[in-house]
From TrEMBL:
Keywords: Repeat. PANTHER family: NEURAL CELL ADHESION MOLECULE L1-LIKE PROTEIN (PTHR13817:SF136), TITIN (PTHR13817). Residues 25-117 form the Ig-like domain. It comes from Mytilus galloprovincialis (Mediterranean mussel). InterPro entries: FN3_dom (IPR003961), FN3_sf (IPR036116), Ig-like_dom (IPR007110), Ig-like_dom_sf (IPR036179), Ig-like_fold (IPR013783), Ig_I-set (IPR013098), Ig_sub (IPR003599), Striated_Muscle_Regulatory (IPR050964). SMART domains: FN3, IG. This is Neuronal cell adhesion molecule. Residues 121-221, 223-322, 327-436, 440-540, 541-630 form the Fibronectin type-III domain.
Length: 680
């Protein structure tokens, strides 16, 4: 016994040592079979284990129906996680089959296989055959197509008629899979029918089968029923309008289909009758001599075989309504509710709601109001619906109108209404709404945009709702799509005729949200806003060149840092040691300026200023100019280039200038030739 145990332990230790030395490989959990619906994603996991330190050496391959899977960009197969996971995306019937994972390391292998079943809707049934056609019934047989990977639950039979062969009707009930053959279908009389069948599993219905080759002809018979939704319309005075829902062709059951309409005044014993021969008709209009009279009506289906076996139900209805005879009394503003800028409350005495006074079904009241300055031809209407019952009587009626214009003189009246008509109005009352906050300003837009300022313009609000006192302006910086706090401009605009504002002190190349509120004595209303991005459009730093200095004048030319539209240039100069600058007239077209009338033998500080149309300026560096030409050294005229901060010989400067002019002329000649060719 002890020897046996010893040998067993020895064998286990020997196996573990061999496994560690030679390695081990196995698929820990076998692949599992899966059933999914078509279009779903499937995931197979091949959980491979091996000896420590050997994991990186494992090689995994996947097969589908014994064919190696080679993933590509267009493939539905996707292999993940070092090959241990296989994804089948948007699975269809073509991906149904056996999937195998093969793991190997050196000469050791392990494999696991699972089956994927794709469930889809069934294939259409086949070999549909009409077995018998007798009376009002047809017997059908058919064969199943493929079940789509799931058992078939039932069938839906559809049929058409020779009258409308392109429209397929559904049979009343689905036929169970277990129903015995042949399957019997109930049909309406007077029709020639063809049939087709759809199969259903848990996924859904199949496509329809091919129709039967033979047709089933059913003889005519009595109509099976009568029209539904029988009633009356009451919109015409002294008319009894009887309505119903036309019966479809399949329910006519025979030729010569028509409607037999009967009516009588409630309490009468004599029926009036007429026949409507139009099978598509849905109403009958009759002349009567009463208003909103109560009638008994019925509509019966009839064809050449006879009338419907089903009795026609008697329905109560009314003849047409007319204008109510009453007008509300004591119409006034509700003293318990103050008038608001956009809302007013009213009160009046309720009226007698008996049908002989209302001359129809009482629905409530119609409030009308209009501006005193416009007249009642532009009135607005508000319906006040009142639900009443026999045991409920309201002495007074209260109602409110919202959406009134503020700070406006108005007139109002109230009338009784039934379903289609309105009675005579009450007395008209006059009232005025108080001042309110204004509506938003109109057409807010940026008029000018600079690097540090924005000029806004707008129009007054369409609805001032009072006397405008002015406007409030605010702005919010926007950074990284985050809107900051509102910064209000002070002082506020207190003149309502001012419809523009300039906001200064902004940062260049930043986005801001600008808000404008109109303001009355009651307060400010809703703002209008606009998002604007400031520019980075200050003029470039100009580079002046001083030349031709004599005892009382000097000449300065310049070139901009880069070309800009609408930029003007002028010079500012002052004697050495003085504080105030003098300036020349601005130049738009010329790029030079002669400054005259200077004092001789005097040192001046000079700078060139560039200014755009928004008033934004940039300055050159200050540079000295001596009106005594000999002060430059050898008696020859000198040129000072402010861009480099040094003087050079005036002749050398002129030579360079002539060279620049020759280059400009050459470029101009080429451009002129190009434009001439283009115009041709």
């Amino acid at each position: 016994m002890w020897k046996l145990v010893y040998l067993t332990d020895l064998f286990i230790w020997w196996w573990l040592i061999i496994s560690i030395v030679t390695g081990d490989l196995r698929i820990r959990v076998p692949l599992t079979n899966q059933e999914v619906r078509q279009g779903e994603t499937v995931k197979f996991v091949c959980d491979v284990v091996t000896s420590p330190g050997e994991t990186d050496k494992v090689f995994i391959r996947w097969k589908f129906n014994e064919e190696i899977i080679k993933p590509s960009s267009s493939s539905k197969f996707n292999i993940l996680e070092d090959g241990q996971t296989l994804m089948v995306q948007n699975a269809h019937k073509s991906e149904q089959g056996d999937y195998t994972c093969i793991a190997s390391i050196r000469k050791m292998k392990d494999r696991s296989t699972a089956r994927l079943i794709i469930k889809t809707t069934p294939s259409p049934p086949k070999n549909i055959e009409l077995v018998t056609c007798m009376g009002h019934k047809a017997d059908l047989v058919w064969e199943d197509g493929e079940n789509g990977g799931d058992s078939i639950k039932g069938y839906l039979v559809q049929y058409n008629t020779s009258v409308n062969p392109n429209y397929w009707n559904h049979n009343y009930e689905e036929i169970s899979k277990s129903a015995p053959e042949p399957r019997t279908i109930d049909l309406s009389p007077w029709g020639t029918y063809s049939f087709r069948v759809l199969a259903r599993n848990s996924i859904g219905y199949s496509e329809p089968s091919l129709p039967t080759k033979s047709e089933c002809r059913i003889p005519p018979g009595h109509p099976d029923g009568n029209p539904e939704k029988v009633g009356t319309k009451t919109d015409k005075k002294y008319k009894l309008v009887i309505t119903w829902e036309p019966m479809p062709r399949l329910e006519h059951n025979g030729p010569g289909f028509r409607y037999h309409v009967s009516w009588r005044r409630k309490g009468s014993t004599y029926w009036n009758n007429t026949t409507v021969w139009d099978e598509n008709a849905d109403e009958l209009e009759l002349d009567v001599n009463d208003i909103y009279g109560l009638y008994e009506i019925k509509v019966k289906a009839v064809n050449d075989i006879g009338a419907s076996y089903q009795p026609a139900f008697i329905i109560l209805g009314h003849s047409g309504e007319a204008e109510p005879l009453l007008s509300p009394k004591d119409f006034r503003l509700d003293p318990m509710q103050p008038i608001q800028p956009h809302k007013a409350h009213f009160i009046w005495e309720s009226v007698d709601t008996s049908q002989d006074k209302i001359r129809g079904r009482f629905r409530g009241y119609k409030l009308r109001y209009w501006k005193s300055s416009e007249g009642r031809h532009k009135w607005e209407e508000v319906d006040v619906i009142v639900e009443t019952s026999d045991d409920m009587y309201l002495r007074d009626v209260r109602a409110a109108i919202s959406g009134l214009p503020a700070y406006t003189a108005l007139r109002a009246q109230v009338s009784v209404m039934n379903d289609h008509y309105t009675g005579p109005p009450s007395a008209t009352i006059d009232f005025s709404t108080p001042e309110g906050v204004p509506g938003p300003v109109r057409h807010l837009h940026e008029h000018r945009i600079g690097s540090t300022y924005v000029v806004l313009k707008w129009l007054p609000p369409e609805e001032p709702n009072g006397v405008l006192m002015g406007y409030d302006i605010g702005y919010q910086p926007i950074k990284s799509f985050q809107v900051g706090n509102v910064i209000f401009l002070e002082p506020k605009i207190s003149n309502p005729s001012i419809l523009r504002a300039q906001i200064k002190g902004l940062e260049a190349d930043h986005t801001y949200r600008f808000l404008v509120w109109a303001r009355t004595q009651t307060g400010r209303g809703e703002p209008s806003f606009i998002d604007v991005e400031t520019t980075n459009s200050r003029p470039g730093i100009p580079h002046p060149v001083v030349s031709a200095v004599d005892r009382t004048s000097f000449n300065i030319t310049w070139r901009p840092e880069h070309f800009q539209h609408d930029v003007q240039y002028f010079l500012e100069y002052k004697r050495e040691g003085e504080i105030d600058w003098e300036k020349t007239k601005p130049e738009f077209l010329k790029s030079w300026k002669v400054v005259q009338g200077l004092s001789s033998n005097t040192k001046y500080q000079v700078r060139l200023v560039a200014m755009n149309k928004f008033g934004e300026t940039t300055y050159s560096k200050n540079f000295p100019v001596f009106t005594d030409a000999t002060a430059y050294g050898d008696g020859a005229l000198k040129s000072y280039d402010a861009s480099i901060g040094k003087y050079e010989s005036f002749n050398n400067h002129n030579n360079a200038k002539r060279h620049h002019l020759s280059v400009i002329c050459a470029i101009t000649t080429v451009l002129t030739a190009y434009i001439t060719v283009f115009q041709r």
